[in-house]
Amino acid sequence: MKRCFATILILLAWLNLAFSQTNIKGKVTDQKGLAIVGANIYIKDSYDGGSSDENGNFNFITSETDSQILEISYVGFESAEEKIYCTSHPVEITIKLKPVVNELNAVVVSAGAFEASDTKRITILRPLDIVTTAGAGGDIYGAIQTLPGTQHVGNETGLFVRGGDASETKTFIDGVAVENPYFTDVPDIPQRGRFSPFLFKGTIFSTGGYSVQYGGAMSSALILESQDLPDRTTTNISIMSVGVGIGHDHLFNNKKTSLGAYASYVNLLPYYALVPQTYDYGKPPESGSGSLIFRQKTSKTGILKAFINFSPTKIEVTYPYSVDTSTQNFTYGDKNKNLFANASYQELFAKHWTIFTSLSYSRNHDDILLNKTDSATSLTSLAQGRVTLSRSVGSLSSVRLGLELQHPHYEDSFDQYTSKADDDYSAEYAEGDIYITQKLVARVGARLEYSSLLNEGNLAPRASIAYKTGELSQVSFAYGQFYQEPDRFFLYSADPLTFEHADHYIINYQTVSNNRTFRVEAYYKTYHDLVKTIPDTASTGNGYAKGVDVFYRDKKSIKHADFWISYSYLDTKRNYLYFPESFTPSFAAKHTLSVVYKQSIPKINVSVGATYVFATGRTFLNPYDPVLPGDKIPDYNNLSLSASYLTSIFQNFTVIAVGVGNVLGINNLVGYRYFTDANPVEVKMPALRSYFIGLFMTIGEDRGDDE
Amino acid sequence: MRKVIKFSNDGFKIIKQETQIDNHKTMKLNFSLLLFILIATSSNAQDKRYIDNMSKNISIIDTAMSAANLQLVANNFERIALAEKNKWLPYYYTSYTLTRQSYVMSDKSQIDNVLDKADKYIAVADSLQPENSEIITVKAFIASARILVNPMVRGAQFGPISGQLLDQAIKLDPNNPRPYFLKGTSAFYTPPAFGGGKDKAEKFFEMALMKYSTFKPADELAPNWGEARTKYMLDQCKE
Fold this sequence. Notes:
Low-confidence stretches of chain A: 117-122, 701-707
Largest sheet of chain A: 22 strands, antiparallel, barrel
Order of helices and strands of chain B: EEHHHHHHHHH
Mean pLDDT of chain B: 83
CATH architecture of the largest domain in chain A: Beta Barrel
Strand order of the largest sheet of chain B: 1-2
Distance between the termini of chain A: 74 Å
Oligomer: heterodimer
Number of strands of chain B: 2
CATH class of the largest domain in chain A: Mainly Beta
């Protein structure tokens, strides 16, 4: 009897199996109804399932019974779950998958910003692009000058963006403002940036409409984010026509701590002996630089970074023109000492929150000797700190809150006169990136600033919206108010000055794919409360700038080639400083065109590049004949070439690079100077042509090929 | 009543059973034995299903060459992985197949997404079976695949990562031929100026072949791929 019962049991079980097979079929598509090929469709926690075919159809049989969950997954799409009921009746189902919403395919706040980064997958310029741009000389600022919105001002240091002067562009490293990002300024000879592009993993160059996290800049922000931990221990050696450098990065065994030390020495004496220069150098530029870089991973998500750099520079130049009639020439000597130190810490906490803090101290001291007799000193120090808290909301939206404190100290002396000023500057800011849909984002925020020196505060609202018009394209609009303090030399006086102030209106269209980028941006800017020195020093100046920037980059059309074209149209006038009326400033050219071309020849490990720059003549206000339109310099043309060869020397990865600036030898005028009468003195480029040769070797670059 | 039952990997065997018992007891015993067999065969069947499904898919990995076919195989492994949850091999094979797929995909913009998925699954395999030479090898394979998205930019970043992982894989099991095969492959596609070249690649492939000749996979499901490809690549080096 029992045996019988058991037999029945087995039979039942078998029958159960045999009769409970259910056929499940259907189709998987995207939101538009297009077939998804290769999606995985399966009964959760079972082996039963199938893949969709080239028409998106699937068809499989399951022996599972009752209520089950059907799971559908495909790379790039959100997985879907459907409740089904498995009886022996066939189940037919159509599933529409939603694309994964992430920062790669969602709309981004883009008006005004150019991003160069290794961390984002789609970027406009990468750090490597900076060092391989002909004519940039491995300088971050040199490469940035090939982007639209910038001007080629051959006689002054700094970035001149959209009708703004050099002081209107501010550099930030890991959230702290850098007071002296360039080598010390010398009349009529533009200086390069202090910091090597290799220190940074990401660069955002914003030509307007930037986040409330950044203040003190009316036109532009250059936001640099330093490298994280290195992958391995390496030593770098560079030998250049202008000097030598050595660096060592040590990654400790726990892979959580690294310490880097860098030293370099640059002396242009041998180079200037070989290559004719426009000016006489009593002491050709000589500089040293020492840096320490510390990185500590404090947890899976936390990182502490510290960086300190000290660099002394010496230079003495004699100009063939004078500041007055007493001498036929003019000698400018400068000994500069620059210290920059910062530390930052970032960590995630309580699931959705991120805290970012940074502290920095910098000090820049110039010891100036004019005509070898009159001495002057100039000192700037800046202590600052910042805390930003951000919280992510949902998968894309976020809000940020922050506080920034700065204490700058300025001190200038000439002969027996000394001027000093101290400021306490504070800013609080709040901003939200609100994703209304995956295609529509709004960034709204405000920055509240206060300066003890000006005894004044301001509130700067900023807002952007961006809408994705296609898979790769989007339009955006940005509005913002931007304030900065007047130049330090005006802060010494008791004149009742206020913050200088600009309003930005930007409209942008861009289409960005991996290999092609096209963007066009139109802007309108108004300036208010600029410092004016006539009749009295007061915040009564004003101005405007409007224009169109176009950028196209293509890495696809020509094999192994990469090129970009930037065009800027700029119409700007301002009534400030000593201007008798509204006038186009000397740093603004109406049309600027840059073409950068790079071709690599993999067979012989060589890449060659060319950069061509064209700018229409800039106008100079003649103080002895202040009638519009002023004196105009001729159009500017410059073609630079570069080549690099990749090889290994004693098994070490080595790059040999050569470059020639202004290869055609066009004797460009870069400016006029006025001394005693209406006849201007012509300012030429510091050298007709420039040459560069360098060897860069990395020791310990284990590419996994050693045995 | 005395019975001796010995368990082994593939179910159980009754070694010895004493029969001096009454009828009623026999009936009772028979019934419980029957139930036991039922349960045992069903778990045995589950094992068999796992082994059958895995072997079937492993046998087609080497012949699947197109992105579409590799996707199918990856899907099959993924289903096994998600149903089994505690076995590292299905995760390992899902990841390996996805990485293979990334090399032959026509839509380059999806490569990183596919590799992100491969990364996710190999991390699960790693947590189930830590310090395993084969798993570390696939991690290196994924890092090498990332380079293809943008060799100029990514070579310097992922090349060394892949190299370090392969060194680690060799350290964990010096007899594993696959890290040598991958080292050979990356040397083959790296220009001599960057420390690669056919000469270097050839040495790695020869080393790999030597290891393949003595390599015995732990069981029928254990990783055992790459030998045919090594021979093919070695021929390419000699050309």
